[in-house]
Write a structure and sequence with these properties.
With 624 residues, the chain is an alpha/beta fold. The protein contains 21 helices and 21 strands. α9 (221-234) crosses α11 (281-309) and α15 (408-420) packs across α19.
């Protein structure tokens, strides 16, 4: 009988479900893609239904179910933390305890109730239920699908039960955790505190802080002063990468905010930035200061992991592993021969890791020897796929004018011509991506050579802050032609410099210019994807894992000589990445996208009827 393990993450943020059959990933998906609630924390019922349907099985057919952390250990941490900081945190304690006493302490019962709703009847036979620790789930998520039989494991996030960082070793089917850093000392929470102070949302705005950091002036007085203050007053960083935080400046342990606003303002001489307010240079410099400190901690931890494991490879997971700038710098140090990062490195990925932990550790299944440079993620295309019938249904519902291309190569040539003309195209193909990045199946595309493309995409398509950078998708065989990177990066997890030969000189007064003057300076021959520090967050596209997307970029190369296009996720700010053809069509119609491709169907905005809109979608996705 086949071994089938369902992994679930839920009740914090980014709920998700993943399914393994005999150790192979059948399907994995985020709850938010189905519910259309960004970072949805509820039980991922629709995601569970999807992954089971993909395998053609029911809950009662499963061998085991794995939840991504241990609720009792987390509750123990909460109680001990409130006790340690008493009498502080009474309001937070009174807010948190009813939820725990009513629901989370009875997690088994709650899970069975939710799963029986999916089954539609009481379960005749309940699969075994496991609760791997949070950081073990992260460790399993990045080691078992990696292309390595032996690797150091580094997991870094805000907090799991107690651990905020772990160093371990994976070999064969075994994982050994050597060291862990306990709450409240967390580089992830330190970074989130600066996310909050710079006016972004915690647990969703950290990547914005990373994108803001390059606008900091490296040689300016603010960056050095902020770093000195952080290292003197907020955090003590040890040689091995462990840290101690000065908790008098932080409120997250027992409060309802990340940090003490008054004390931070006294320390930095800078008030908390209000959300949506103008960005001034001090906040850009503050973002750069904490980014550099975070990179230093990650590199120290990686060095410690190398000493402890003597492994030549490293794998990473946890929310901090989504800091692709730090990842790129780790790769360039040469501490390791190779690295691999779980595409869904945050809490969603814990669902997959929990399932892996049960399969290989709980059930002691033998792990197949990985093939060189090939991971088990199937390009991270693990979500739902939709048929031509689904697209035809959408066409009938909205009376949508379209052209159908029997020959996909001709469609690619036509889309390449439109991109060359500066048009913006929604591109919807195959299975939905697993993880926070769109990788060419749920993407909005543009011409990387067009100096107006970044502004247009940010302001007229995504409805988001104008400073935000966009990622390039490049044919993997042409990667080194454009970027100082020889390591394939299919999951958009590494930042690397743009090749100097295609970069332009900066004016002498560049650092004294305003944010948007710097942003819109034409920095290279691919300006739409070259960030202000001449870097890019790169996706290398392989013909083996996504032939359709590769074919489109190759058609663009045949036409223009350039094998780099802009790839951003198919959504507007505040909205999850689209899942269904209808999600894609509605997003297309609500924005200034010019064209939409669904499979082999082609839609021109100019020929569409007005979208009947019975919802205030801008308010729904917080765009007003």
């Amino acid at each position: 009988m086949n071994s089938s393990v369902l992994g679930i993450s839920a009740f914090y943020h980014d709920s998700a479900a993943a399914l393994l059959i005999d150790g192979e990933i059948v399907a994995a998906a985020h709850a938010e893609r189905f519910t259309r609630i960004k970072h949805d924390a509820s039980f991922p019922a629709l995601a569970v239904q999807y992954v089971l349907a993909e395998a053609g099985i029911k809950v009662s057919d499963l061998s085991a179910i794995a939840f991504y952390d241990k609720p009792y250990l987390k509750f123990e941490r909460l109680l001990e933390t409130y006790h340690a900081f008493a009498p502080k945190g009474l309001r937070s304690f009174l807010s948190a305890m009813p939820v725990w006493i009513k629901e989370k302490l009875f997690m088994r019962r709650m899970l069975w109730e939710e799963l029986e709703k999916i089954e539609g009847e009481p379960l005749r036979q309940k699969p075994e239920l496991f609760f791997p620790e949070h950081h073990l789930s992260h460790a399993a998520s990045c080691f078992y699908p990696s292309p390595f039989d032996d690797a150091a494991i580094l997991t870094i996030d805000g907090v799991g039960e107690w651990a905020t960082t772990t160093i371990g070793h994976g070999k064969g089917n075994a994982i050994t955790i050597f060291q862990e850093l306990p709450f409240p000392h967390s580089i992830g929470l330190l970074y989130s505190a600066f996310t909050y102070y710079c006016g972004f949302r915690v647990n969703s705005g950290e990547y914005k802080l990373m994108g803001l950091a390059p606008y900091g002036i490296i040689q300016g007085e603010h960056v050095k002063r902020y770093k000195d203050l952080i290292l003197r007053e907020l955090v003590d960083i040890r040689e091995d990468g462990s840290i101690l935080l000065n908790m008098k400046f932080f409120d997250y342990a027992t409060g309802l905010r990340m940090c003490n606003d008054r004390k931070w303002q006294e320390l930095f001489g800078l008030p908390k930035r209000e959300s949506e307010s103008e960005f001034t240079q001090p906040y850009m410099d503050m973002a750069l200061a904490i980014q550099q400190i975070t990179e230093d901690v990650v590199l120290r931890l990686a060095k410690t992991a190398r000493k402890l494991t003597n492994s030549r490879n490293i794998v990473l997971a946890g929310g901090v592993a989504l800091n692709c700038v730090a990842n790129g710098k780790l790769l360039r140090t040469g501490i390791y021969d190779d690295l691999w990062i779980q595409p869904a490195a945050g809490d969603a990925g814990g669902a997959l890791g929990a399932a892996y932990a049960v399969h290989y550790i709980g059930k002691n299944k033998e792990r197949r020897k990985p093939q060189e440079r090939q991971d088990a993620m199937q390009g991270s295309y693990l979500g739902p796929e939709f048929s031509e019938t689904d697209i035809k249904r959408l066409v009938r519902k909205y009376e949508a004018e379209n052209n159908y291309f029997n020959d996909f190569s001709i469609l690619c040539t036509e889309v390449a011509k439109l991109l060359d003309q500066g048009k913006i195209v929604g591109w919807f193909q195959g299975r939905m991506e697993w993880g926070p990045r769109a990788l060419g199946n749920r993407s909005i595309l543009g011409d990387s050579r067009n100096p107006e493309m970044q502004k247009k995409l940010n302001l007229k398509i995504k409805y988001r802050e104008g400073f935000r950078p966009f990622a390039p998708s490049v044919l993997e065989e042409d990667l080194e032609k454009y970027f100082d990177l020889s390591h394939f990066t299919p999951y958009m997890q590494l930042v690397a410099p743009v090749q100097g030969g295609i970069c332009n000189l900066l004016p002498n007064d560049y650092d004294s210019q305003g944010m948007y003057e710097r942003l819109y300076h034409n920095r290279s021959t691919i300006p739409a994807v070259t960030h202000v520090d001449f870097s890019a967050r790169i996706q290398s596209v392989s013909r083996k894992t996504n032939e359709r997307y590769w074919s489109l970029i190759n058609a663009f190369k045949d036409l223009t000589g350039c094998s780099v296009i802009v790839n951003t996720s198919f959504n507007v700010r505040g909205e999850p990445i689209v899942c269904t053809p209808e999600d894609a069509y509605r997003c297309f119609m609500r924005t200034e996208m010019d064209y939409l491709v669904l499979g082999n169907y082609f839609f021109d905005k100019k020929t569409q009827h007005t979208l009947p809109d019975d919802t205030d979608w801008k308010k729904e996705f917080e765009l007003d």
